[in-house]
Amino acid sequence: MNKILVLGGSGFLGRSLCEQLVRRHPGAEIVVPTRRVVHAGHLRTLPLLTIAEADVHDAATLAALARGCDAVVNLVAILHGSAAEFDAVHHQLPATLTRAMHGAGVRRLVHVSALGAASYAPSNYLRSKAAGEEVLKAGDLALTILRPSVIFGRHDRLLNLFAQLQAFAPVLPLAASHVHFQPVWVEDVAAAIVKVLDDPAWIGRTIECAGPQVMPLSELVRLAGRLAGHERRQIALPDWAARAQAFVMEMLPGPPLMSRDNLDSMRVPSVATGRLPGLAELGITPSAVAAVAATYLAPGTGVARLDGWRSMHR
Fold this sequence. Notes:
Blueprint: E1 3-7, H1 12-24, E2 29-34, E3 49-53, H2 59-66, E4 71-74, H3 83-104, E5 108-112, H4 124-137, E6 142-148, E7 151-152, H5 159-168, E8 171-174, E9 180-181, E10 184-185, H6 186-198, E11 206-209, E12 215-216, H7 217-228, E13 233-236, H8 239-251, H9 260-265, H10 289-297
Helix pairs in contact: 1-6, 2-3, 3-4, 5-7, 7-10
C-alpha cells in the first residue's frame, strides 16, 4: 500500500498502529488527521507520516483526506457522552465516512468497534457502536470489522488509572467489580489491523480481538495494584451505590473516570463469543496481561502517564 488514512491515529491504539504500519510498509505515507496538531506530537518522529489538522466529521474534508488513499482505518471513538454525542461519533461519522470514501474512489476500510456491540445492548456506547457497524455493512465497501475487549498497554487508561488510584487511596470503592473482561494488548490489536489490511481474504468479516484470560474487574484492579507495589483493599459497591458514584463523577469537570453509561455497558461481559474468528486465526498469539503490565507498572518502571485522557480517540 502506498497511502493509508488513519482516523483516530493520534490516540492510544492509533499510536501503536501507526508505528506498526511504518514498520510493515516503510515506503507508505500514513495520514493522521487530528483536531489539534499538538495531540499527535508523539507521532512526529515516524517517517512518511503526515499529521493533518482537520475536522473528520466534515464530509468535504473527509473526502479530501481519503482521496488517493489505498485504505482507511477508523479508530475514532468516545467512552463518555450523551446519546447524541455517541451517535455522532459512532454512527454518523461512519455514515459520513462511507459517503466520503465513495466520493474519493476508495473502498478498503478497517473499522474498530467493540465486543458486545448490538442494537439491543444496554448502553448508548454499545448501541451506537452497533449502528456504526450496520451503516458500514450497508455501504458497499471492502470492509473488515474488529471487535476488541478492553485494551491495555503502556499508555492505557485502565491499569494505569487503577495503579495510580491505589497509590493514594487506602481503600478502593469499586463499581462493577464482578464484571468480566478479556483484556487484549494494544500491540496485538494493532497487529491484527495490519494483518487484515494486507490480506483481502478478511474483507467482509468480523474479528473478535481478545486476550488469553477472562478476568473480573476486581482481579484486574488487584493486578494493577500488586504490580505497582501498592495493592489496596477493595470495597465492592452495590448497584445503587455504583450509579450514585458514577453520577457524581459525571458532574465533575473534565472527562469522568466512570459514567452511568459505562456501568450500563458493563452489564454485558466484554468477552469473546467464540462464534467469530479471533486473533489465533490471524496467526497472533495474544499476550497475557500480567506479563505485559509488569513492564510498565512494576516498581522501577514508573506508572505511565495517562496520555490522551482528554482525547476523544481510542
